[in-house]
Write a structure and sequence with these properties.
TIM Barrel; 47% helix; alpha/beta
């Protein structure tokens, strides 16, 4: 069911920023689940911090005096029209935050006409999520190299069978990142309940009730491959064992051949890598540093965006994520040449703070803020953003 306007209005007073949702979410969510979302790589989680700082530092000079108008937040990508240029980024396990989290996100995407990029390691199958978001579903893959990528290729087939619009292959996880909070919380595989996780669950009755009601289906997409009558533990162990490294360019080319629809390569920062992806036939490049979760020393993704946009020169669509927390962040990325953006944690904080209604509230939050930002800047369309005067102090020089 879609959220009422009165509810939206009430929350826009209570939670006018994503940070408000984050703070409420922290209180309402078991610590292991909140830290999984909120944490990043490295002792100081600096890569994540810098993503936000780099976006904040981008200035846009507004132009005034044109006629009053309604900004058009709609956008077309790969032949589909969406209500706004923001997707829910692929994220491993929304159901850790709210059991049935993936389904809740799917309903929000369908109701609000924006894409959900389902992660292959999610807690719901692509078939189930396609029932709920038939018009707005994208799907992301990690690498399972056994038998010439047989599992990945079967996932691609399944995604095609249920009408997934866009396939995303993630390249920026060649090794498991060391995220200190996940270790302190014992959120590691092989996983077993500790006294601390059980206590945390008991301390959060809303979460516990949702867990008792919906259960949890770890890595649901992989159940058919983990052997007949595989237990949850078997499935978890299967995914841990089989998920190895990141795709090579040769492997990306195999997905290009296997997938007839739009193919996006995710996690690139270097224009040379973007060039390589386009030469293989990628339709889109997702400039991203995984939200600061993989390499602490990586530059903020937004600082790499202009060089990638220049290098590709319109030969593929440019998507951007990492650090988006507001409508003006979306507008900043679009002004620097992105064709679309994705937000990860913002939607997860919504789930943490507001449960089933969280993702839809975050969607309307973004859409309202984008419209206000465009009116304030003086543009009616995203294309006009490119003509503005912009100061981007951190822009990475690849010379
Ligand atoms: C909890 C969590 C889980 C994630 N899991 C995946 C994943 O399974 N596959 C993937 O390609 N990216 C994954 N990401 C990265 C996101 O797709 C995206 O790049 C990142 O969240 C963007 O940064 P933001 O959180 O600042 O918006 C994950 C991010 C978070 C926060």
């Amino acid at each position: 069911m879609s959220m009422s306007d009165a509810r939206k209005a009430e929350w826009s007073l209570k939670y006018p920023t994503i940070e408000d949702l984050r703070l409420r979410g922290r209180r309402r969510t078991p610590r292991f689940a909140f830290d999984y979302v909120d944490g990043a790589v490295g002792a100081s989680e600096l890569n994540m911090v810098r993503n936000a700082e780099a976006l904040d530092a981008i200035e846009i000079v507004p132009r005034y005096g044109s006629v009053n108008f309604t900004a058009n937040t709609e956008v077309e990508l790969f032949g589909e029209t969406y209500a706004m240029p923001v997707a829910i980024a692929p994220m491993g396990i929304p159901s850790l935050v709210l059991p049935n989290g993936e389904e809740v996100m799917a309903r929000a995407a369908q109701a609000h006409r924006f894409p959900l990029a389902l992660g292959c390691v999610a807690g719901a199958t692509v078939e189930r999520i396609a029932e709920l978001a038939p018009d707005n579903l994208w799907f992301q893959l990690y690498r399972q190299p056994a038998n010439e990528l047989a599992v990945d290729m079967d996932l691609v087939r399944r995604a095609g069978d249920v009408g997934v619009k866009v396939l995303i292959v993630t390249l920026d996880v060649p090794s498991r990142a060391k995220r200190p909070r996940e270790r302190r919380d014992r959120l590691v595989i092989p996983y077993s309940h500790s006294v601390r996780t059980v206590t945390e669950a008991l301390k959060h009755p809303t979460w516990l009730m949702a867990y008792l009601r919906h259960g949890m289906r770890p890595f649901a997409n992989y159940r058919p491959y983990a052997g007949e009558n595989a237990s949850d533990k078997d499935v978890i162990e299967f995914v841990r064992r089989e998920t190895v490294g990141a795709f090579t360019w040769d492997e990306v080319a195999q997905f290009r051949d296997a997938w007839p629809g739009p193919l996006v390569v995710k996690g690139l920062l270097h224009p040379g890598d973007a060039e390589r992806a386009v030469s293989i036939g990628a339709d889109g490049i997702e400039v991203s540093n995984h939200g600061g979760r993989q390499l602490e020393a990586a530059p903020p993704a937004i600082d790499c965006l202009p060089a990638v946009v220049d290098a590709i020169g319109g030969r593929a669509k440019i998507l951007f994520d990492s650090g988006i927390r507001s409508g003006i962040d979306v507008v900043r990325a679009m002004a620097l040449g992105a064709d679309f953006t994705l937000a990860g944690r913002a939607f997860m904080y919504g789930l943490c703070a507001l449960g089933e209604e969280g993702p839809e509230y975050v969607a309307s939050f973004f859409q309202d803020e984008i419209a206000v930002a465009m009116r304030q800047i003086g543009v009616q369309t995203y294309a006009e953003l490119r003509d503005l005067d912009i100061r981007h102090p951190g822009a990475f020089n690849f010379g």
